[in-house]
Amino acid sequence: MAREENVNSARLLRSFERRFLATRGLRSFPWQSLEEKLRDSGSELLLDILQKTVKHPLCVKHPPSVKYVRCFLSELIRKHEAVHEEPLDELYEALAEVLTAEEPTQCHRSYLLPSGDSVTLSESTAIVSHGTTGLVTWNAALYLAEWAIENPAVFTHRTVLELGSGAGFTGLAICKMCRPRAYVFSDCHSRVLKQLQGNILLNSLSLEPDATTPMQHQGHDTHNSESPRVTVALLDWDTATAPQLAAFQPDIVIAADVLYCPETILSLVGLLQRLSACQKDQRAPDAYVAFTIRNPETCQMFTTELGRVGIPWEAVPRHDQKLFPYEEHSETTILKLTLQVHTRLGRSP
């Protein structure tokens, strides 16, 4: 029984740690399980949670939003007071520190990787005012990263082009866990690109000197294969030219949560057509598109457009790993697209 209790406590600690580091909504935390545990034990569990969250080395180095920490500590104190009469000084001291702290313009969220490494993202505390969704890490980006980590051979020693990289989480996880030869992050929003470059450097990856210049394959033999060549490219799906796309020479193309509306779908399918058409003397890349199914009609339009232009697709089986905290009730899927040189260009009626 004691061993089972220890396992349950470790699982609870892990849940709090992962959710707090990723600054998930407080409602997603297992508060009820914590209350039940506290009724049967002393305050040691709360002290352990404090060390795994607010005092975690990652949070000390890359702190989350002050408001978020304040709300979290206030909830921890409420749970403690509901069960124990004696106050826990460490909790109040931690709250006192954060009450006097100023909210910075940048905050952080971190995700733990199976290797023991982590991915940390810097985000603006005024994110809504920037008018772009690209600064947020969406569920499909986490889901695609989990699948990649479970299937590293898809990316190992290969050149990956990511469309709509956003905050950069998926690519950073792949670069750290799947040993790609080269990785091209891309987006079309200048503010997103600036934040993306910062996140790449924050995670100890080096950028090519001219980050917006498409990468060439020359020089791979002299490059350290343990550390991929990383590039950030400005890529507008509607205006990208064949020479620009040909310069990337990707083996794999990926995208996560980029199916927002009919216009975006048409732009993406058009870009995929041009990508396949510019692969003259080599095998066209496979593409993996991950998305959360919010509107079935949007998904149907995407697959219909793929069929219309002759791009075969198949659903990738769901993976078993649950490495990162995200909304579990949301339905997320990955489609594997087989880009072919003979796909028809243009948007025929």
UniProtKB/TrEMBL annotation:
Residues 11-98 form the FAM86 N-terminal domain. InterPro entries: FAM86_N (IPR029426), Methyltransf_16 (IPR019410), SAM-dependent_MTases_sf (IPR029063). The keyword S-adenosyl-L-methionine applies. One of its GO terms (cellular component) is protein-containing complex. Keywords: Methyltransferase, S-adenosyl-L-methionine, Transferase. Pfam families: FAM86, Methyltransf_16. The keyword Heme does not apply. GO terms for biological process: methylation. GO terms for molecular function: methyltransferase activity. Belongs to the class I-like SAM-binding methyltransferase superfamily. EEF2KMT family. This is FAM86 N-terminal domain-containing protein.
